[in-house]
Amino acid sequence: MDAHKVGNRFILILILGLLAAIGPFSIDMYLPAFPAIAKSLNTSIEKVQLSLSSFFIGISVGQLAYGPLLDRYGRKVPMYFGIIIYLLASVGCAVAGNADLLIVLRFVQALGACVGIVGSRAMIRDLFPVKESAKMFSLLLLVIAVSPMIAPTVGGIVTTTLGWHSVFVILAVVALLICLAMHFFLPESRKPDPAFSLKPKPILTNFYSVIKEPQFYTYAIAGCIGAAGQYAFIAGSPYVVMEYFGVSEQYYGWIFAFNIAGLIGFSQLNGILLKRYSSQQLIFSLQPVQALIAVTALAGAYFGWLNLPLLCMLMFAFLSLQGILFPNASALSIAPFHNNAGSASALLGAFQMGFGALSSASITLFKSHNAVPMTAVIATCSCISVAILLVAQYRIKNNMSTLAMD
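Structure tokens predicted for Bcr/CflA family efflux MFS transporter:
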């Protein structure tokens, strides 16, 4: 389906953005509730953080299953299925009576949420030419990025006024509204393909054909490891801001929103920059800058001169660059694929959330009760991403698929 055949682009991007944002919204909205959940369930904040890690694991694994389903049955049917799973799991989270059950239900909730991430990316690949897809990913990121600005603030207000259980009730209602919007306003971008096999061997072969493409594994792995620093901030900031720096739940929501505002602004600046520079040029020039910012934050935390305003400034700069880096890495990684764009999108999402799960879980391994664990993981992710790009630079410049520039 050509892009000009799509009715209203604003409505399309809005719905796809909501589908993709339901996962991040589920993460960010309950962050201010960590202390309240721990107290209510008679557990520690560290144990509650494992429900965040289980969500990352579920959203990573689930995407691998939805990729083939989206290629076999079209886009909308699997998306309905996933959102309904999400809705039911959200209700379960609202009535969970202990931390272990919450951890399990968050995993199931993620299995439903991840279809929105895979499906939205695949539909953009269906509906828009490759050269335009990076701009569309930036618009998609705009909608996604609004959720972490709103979610922690709303979560803080809901937690203090109605209790943490109400957070998950609201998420269930949001899922229902998204289902209705999909039914009435979202076009089907790919017809079912009966020839697409769901047997394990063809699926694994299809995944292998995607992952062996140099353009895919270079930008997918480098981009997703770099993005894992963002998830380390999401996982670590509740403790650092509310416990270490002593900020209230509602004020934490505003601080979080301030930092995410940079990601939103720069994701839209990306569309302007793409008129003058290629996606490759932006990634290779800005990823080292982001790594330098992350290392500066780590040094400040380690040597004790990192205060809250400086942390906010550095994280604002870090996340702002993420608004440019990840949309371009996403567009380049899935650009070579047409018939199996769903599988390519699934692998990209699995890498993103898989590395996000590792980065968020690794924070809990540190025993230091300050900002060092969070900033150390962020700096490590950024530096590894730079190293991957440097190693691959020669091959990319000489052997890159021409699809990247089409």
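The two ends are 18 Å apart (CA to CA).
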